[in-house]
Amino acid sequence: MTNTQVTLVQIDNYGPWTVTPEPRREVDLQTLQSRLYADLSQLIGNREGYTFFTRFDNMVTVTNGIDRDAHALIQESVANRYPVTVSLGVGVDPSPAVALGEATAAIQEGGSAQDASRQEILSGEFLSESDRTDDDVQIAHFDVNDATGKYTDQLNEFDTFIHIEQGYAALMRYMREQHDSLSFFVGGDNVIAVCPSLGEAEYQDAIEAVHERVEVELKVGVGRHRTAQGAGMAAKHALETCRDDGTDVEFA
Amino acid sequence: MTNTQVTLVQIDNYGPWTVTPEPRREVDLQTLQSRLYADLSQLIGNREGYTFFTRFDNMVTVTNGIDRDAHALIQESVANRYPVTVSLGVGVDPSPAVALGEATAAIQEGGSAQDASRQEILSGEFLSESDRTDDDVQIAHFDVNDATGKYTDQLNEFDTFIHIEQGYAALMRYMREQHDSLSFFVGGDNVIAVCPSLGEAEYQDAIEAVHERVEVELKVGVGRHRTAQGAGMAAKHALETCRDDGTDVEFA
Amino acid sequence: MTNTQVTLVQIDNYGPWTVTPEPRREVDLQTLQSRLYADLSQLIGNREGYTFFTRFDNMVTVTNGIDRDAHALIQESVANRYPVTVSLGVGVDPSPAVALGEATAAIQEGGSAQDASRQEILSGEFLSESDRTDDDVQIAHFDVNDATGKYTDQLNEFDTFIHIEQGYAALMRYMREQHDSLSFFVGGDNVIAVCPSLGEAEYQDAIEAVHERVEVELKVGVGRHRTAQGAGMAAKHALETCRDDGTDVEFA
Amino acid sequence: MTNTQVTLVQIDNYGPWTVTPEPRREVDLQTLQSRLYADLSQLIGNREGYTFFTRFDNMVTVTNGIDRDAHALIQESVANRYPVTVSLGVGVDPSPAVALGEATAAIQEGGSAQDASRQEILSGEFLSESDRTDDDVQIAHFDVNDATGKYTDQLNEFDTFIHIEQGYAALMRYMREQHDSLSFFVGGDNVIAVCPSLGEAEYQDAIEAVHERVEVELKVGVGRHRTAQGAGMAAKHALETCRDDGTDVEFA
């Protein structure tokens, strides 16, 4: 059984800030958002976690092995370097979707995302060190078969993007509804999914569902570890096996 | 009539690089990608252009007023600071989709995105200074009505994300197919579209189409200027008018 | 005759901020300072100017060709991305030291560097476009003869650093006192000086003075242009000529 | 007794790279250097270490508690994100100067700093976990008495900088020669010194020596811990005590 610790990072009162006293330049907002994402990737990645940009003002992270003190330090480090602060909600569950639900609730209970008086919440349940096992996190790394040959080198880049995007939209919805998994586009033709303990049949099934709905062909490598970093790297190696052997689903 | 100059930025041979000699750590790839995006946002934004992250390994930018020399300097600046290089293809057309088609072709003619010997292409057509007008770029800035109240403060963040994402997927496809426009998610509940010369009816129509298909309610501010920056800022102010007056479509 | 426009960038009320409510983590302060420096380097460098880190909370920049509006935009861009704001003072004079004096006074007149109510001053004199010439900026790029062979590859790195540092300390003082020039260490064994219209004799003289005082042997390339960027790049090429020909002073 | 683990970070073959095939734009070099410093600050700081920019192409870091694997990961992370690679030499000794000597030698033995074939050395002695104690690192944090009132708010910024710089030059030399300590300017009017086990008399003595030589008045807070981060934060709090009580030397 997996046991995923999920942390939701939410920028405090961000929407109002972006238009106060009048709309801020988009280039600065984009720079702020992408750098905050890069910094959180490093702050959490250096502690073996994974960060997904999601909507940028709300980022979903997998934080097995990262305790409350480390969360407080990450929160402080953001406040020391940015004009905005972040709230952190944490949840733990065999189902990543349930864990994120708890993490979200932990923040929502503190007030609205657009409540100016709600700042730097740090709340929720952490996975205790004694409850951790070597199988706590399962990560699946999907990519599109021959995306370069079929799309990037052939089509208008936006039409390539539409194919990739529709593939992602189908996959993220299917994996959420059928398999309690959280799937994130991570650039190029890559999607990383945080999953409960799924087997080969479920992944085969998801690949077929996406193919039927939007005609995009996927393959997937799956890894398992006590941290997101370990599971994710194992998944990448498994995906290389797919590439080498022409298979659709490989477990590390 | 609009006349949009679009530049496609493509990282050279990026896919193979990410797995050579073996898969690189995801946290480093994410950091590299998001910082390259932030840097291009600044390099292009300081020259009044707009940069969209798109797939991160391929980024679409609007570059009216940025000439060949400035493109060469941006290309050199990336090579001086990153372990990867970028190719730049440029196109100009009243239709942003056609302009991007030309920009993509300019790169594709130089070789595959995964051809190790193809490096730092700089090719395509630039809008000459004498042909520029004050109406060359039309930008539409969409957001979701009361996203915080209806989604962010109520749902599991992933379910909020699914709503936003499905709204975006429907909008980007509709605007591409019906109105030759390029629409990009830019974080939160915001989508920025680069458009030809569209009127209020077309935007009203797009908002209704998205509502019918995925039940997400949008509003939009529209701006026009000789640069992306000018058009985009006007669009933001128009969107504020929507917010203040409860309207769906406003032109600056 | 040169005519250098110098802008002093001063972080507002920074000292108190670093210890309020209690001392902030040094790693965050260092990250904030070095990134602000990198961002200003880019914001000013993309407009052909040069930025020197100086004391990090006070940075000296050469801004010929960068007008008041561009200064306001740079100031706004910092405020949009950092937890601190900056004041900008500007001065113009044939003597870089006098220009910096005016720039400093423009800020000092607005209040103390540690006055919490003094924020985002933008004040001083700008070089008007009609007064600009192709000779306005003179830059000298010094380095240490065979620093790698004599120091880096031989000594404890701190002892190498002491040699470089004492050479810099002697040079910056001599150039300030004798030649109204502002000299900045820029890493490695490199010093860049912003100078009035000096000739070969003055540079030969400075090199000898440093050699006598601290036994560090320098060479220098000198360039001249209407912008810092142009003069600095010419100086680098002249320094390459020194390297190739074994000479001490070269003008581009 | 202290037991400091020092790591020297040296960019491989950097000098030649900066001028190949011809001199690279200074703004890009400065951006590269300062961001590499910021990234190392975070990579090492997240593991409780301290990073000093020194000459930027050679950076001195205090790495107690950071083992060989973490060093390898930091080295890999730099290679994944920059156009340059770094070598790491490590040394351990009660005297920080001796430890840095060993760290430097570990790199020098692998070849010259300008040897194109020498890449990513990782060599030297690490402090084993079992040998670590709570007193291994001693950090002293100096600043200048009333620097804002006496200098920043009164003088031309370059003349302020000369005072601070001459104070630093005197202090770093004295502490190296008399007390085997490594002192680094960290911005503003602050100097951080990595020391062996010194007492109040030695610091009083250093403050007097600097005052005699260059008339700059310093005060200092001193901290001790098993990591640089812990010792440095304790030193900052001790320095606050100096500020509050008007004393010259305080131990945490």
From TrEMBL, chains A, B, C, D:
GO terms for molecular function: GTP binding; GTP cyclohydrolase IIa activity. Its EC number is 3.5.4.29. The keyword Hydrolase applies. The keyword Hydrolase applies. It catalyses: GTP + 3 H2O = 2-amino-5-formylamino-6-(5-phospho-D-ribosylamino)pyrimidin-4(3H)-one + 2 phosphate + 2 H(+). Belongs to the archaeal-type GTP cyclohydrolase family. InterPro entries: GTP_CycHdrlase_3, Nucleotide_cyclase, Rev_trsase/Diguanyl_cyclase. This is GTP cyclohydrolase III. NCBIfam families: PRK02240.1. The lineage of its organism: Archaea, Methanobacteriati, Methanobacteriota, Stenosarchaea group, Halobacteria. It comes from Halomarina rubra. Keywords: GTP-binding, Hydrolase, Nucleotide-binding. It is an enzyme of class 3 (hydrolase). Catalyzes the formation of 2-amino-5-formylamino-6-ribofuranosylamino-4(3H)-pyrimidinone ribonucleotide monophosphate and inorganic phosphate from GTP. Also has an independent pyrophosphate phosphohydrolase activity.
